[in-house]
C-alpha cells in the first residue's frame, strides 16, 4: 500500500488535531478546576456584596429610626410640609443654623417668637451665641408678628434691605 502526498498530509492533520484535543481534555481536569474555582470566587463575591448591602441597609434603617435635629438646608423644605411649624428662617437675621437651634429650643411658630419677653430673648441670645440685644435690634418679634399675620409684602418692604448682626 502506497501513500500519496495528500494521504500523508491528511493523516498529519488528523494526528495534530488529535494531539491538540488530547492535550485540552487530558490536562488532569485543569480547565475544569479553573472553571470551578472561578465559579466559587464569583459566588463568594456575590455573598460578600449581599452582606455589605444588608449591613448598609441596616445602618440606613438605624439612622432613620434615630430622631435628630433638622439638618441645614432641609428646614425650609420641611417647614412648609410639617403641620405646626413655620419657616422661621424668613425672619431677617435668622440663619438656617439659628432656625435649627430655635426648633430645638421649642420655637416652631412665628407667634411664639412674637410672644417672647426680654428674659426669653436674653436666654435665646446666649443659647445661639449672639451678642446681647441683637434680637431686639433686628426686631425679630416685630418681624414675627408681621409674618404671623401673613403680611409678607409689608415684611419684605420693611426688612429686605437691612444689614444683619451689627
Fold and architecture overview:
13% of the residues are buried. It is rod-shaped and about 125 Å long. Helix content is 67%, strand content 0%. The protein is built from nine helices and no strands. The chain has helices at 5-26, 30-65, 75-81, 96-105, 110-114, 118-128, 134-137, 140-148, 152-159. The model has no long low-confidence stretch (mean pLDDT 83). With 166 residues, the chain is an all-alpha fold.
Provide a compact summary of the structure.
The chain is an all-alpha fold and 166 residues long. It is built from nine helices and no strands.
Task: Please describe the structure with a list of short key phrases separated by commas or semicolons.
166 residues; mainly alpha
Amino acid at each position: 500500500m502506497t501513500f500519496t502526498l495528500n494521504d500523508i498530509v491528511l493523516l498529519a492533520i488528523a494526528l495534530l488535531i488529535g494531539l491538540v484535543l488530547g492535550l485540552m481534555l487530558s490536562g488532569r481536569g485543569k480547565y475544569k478546576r479553573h472553571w470551578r474555582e472561578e465559579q466559587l470566587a464569583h459566588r463568594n463575591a456575590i455573598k460578600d456584596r449581599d452582606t455589605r448591602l444588608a449591613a448598609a441597609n441596616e445602618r440606613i434603617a438605624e439612622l432613620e429610626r434615630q430622631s435628630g435635629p433638622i439638618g441645614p438646608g432641609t428646614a425650609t423644605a420641611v417647614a412648609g410640609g410639617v403641620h405646626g411649624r413655620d419657616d422661621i428662617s424668613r425672619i431677617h437675621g435668622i440663619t438656617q443654623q439659628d432656625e435649627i437651634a430655635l426648633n430645638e429650643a421649642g420655637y416652631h411658630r412665628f407667634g411664639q417668637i412674637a410672644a417672647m419677653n426680654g428674659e426669653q430673648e436674653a436666654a435665646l441670645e446666649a443659647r445661639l451665641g449672639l451678642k446681647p440685644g441683637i434680637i431686639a435690634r433686628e426686631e425679630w418679634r416685630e418681624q414675627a408678628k408681621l409674618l404671623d399675620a401673613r403680611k409678607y409684602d409689608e415684611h419684605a418692604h420693611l426688612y429686605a434691605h437691612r444689614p444683619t448682626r451689627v
